Amino acid sequence: MEEGESNLIRKQNMAFRSLEEIPREVIDEAGKMVEEDLKFLVDYPNLKSLVLDHNNITSNVKMPEMPYLHTLWVNHNQIKNLGVFLATLSQKCPKMRILSMMNNEAAPSYFNGGSYEQYMDYRHYTISQLPHLAILDDTKVTPQERAEACRIYRMVTPSKTRKKSSKRQRSSSFQEEDQRT
C-alpha cells in the first residue's frame, strides 16, 4: 500500500446473509468511507432508516432505488445544491417521511448564517419536492406549511403534464372535428 492510501474496505457485499440489521463492525468501517457514492446500499433494498451524519456526502450523491427508506439523516455533510439533492431523493426514495439536513449549506438556518427567509424558503421547497415528508430537520411539517409550499412551488409532475397535454390534444381534435361537420 502506497503512502497516503487508506486501508479502508471500499466494497462490502452482504447479500444473501439473511441479515436483519447491518453488523456494527461494518457500520464502523463503512462510516469512514461514505462520500458521494451510496450505491453500496443496493444490497439493502428493505432499508427503512439511514443515518449518514458527519460524512462527505454532496448534492450529486449517487444512490440506488430505496423504495422503503422513510428516514434519512444527512446532517453535517457537504450538500450545497438543494434542487439537485432533492431531485435524487424524490426519485430514489419516494416514501421519504423524515429528513434531517442540518448544517449543510443547502439547508440555511440561524446556526449556519442563514436568514429566517432563507430557512423558510428551504423548508417550503423541500416540502414541495417530497410529498410524504412529515418531519424536516427537527420540526414537524404542518398542514399550513404544506399548503404554502404548494402555493409557492406548484410543481407539475411529468405524468400530470402528459395527461393534460393528451387531454388538450383530444379536446382540440374534437373541436376540429366539430368544426368540419
Can you walk me through this structure?
- There is one protein chain.
- This protein is of the alpha/beta class.
- The chain has a single domain (24-154), classed as Leucine-rich repeat, LRR (right-handed beta-alpha superhelix) (Alpha-Beta Horseshoe), CATH 3.80.10.10.
- Helices cover 36% and strands 7% of the residues.
- The protein has five helices and five strands, in the order αββαβαββαα.
- A five-stranded mixed β-sheet has the order 1-2-3-4-5, covered by helices on one side.
- The protein is globular and about 45 Å long.
Sum this structure up briefly.
Helix content is 36%, strand content 7%.
Major sheet: 5 strands, mixed
Radius of gyration: 21 Å
DSSP strand count? 5
- Separate helix tally: 5
Percent of residues in β-strands = 5-15%
Protein name: Leucine-rich melanocyte differentiation-associated protein-like
InterPro entries: LRMDA, LRR_dom_sf
Biased composition (Basic residues): 160-170
Region (Disordered): 154-181
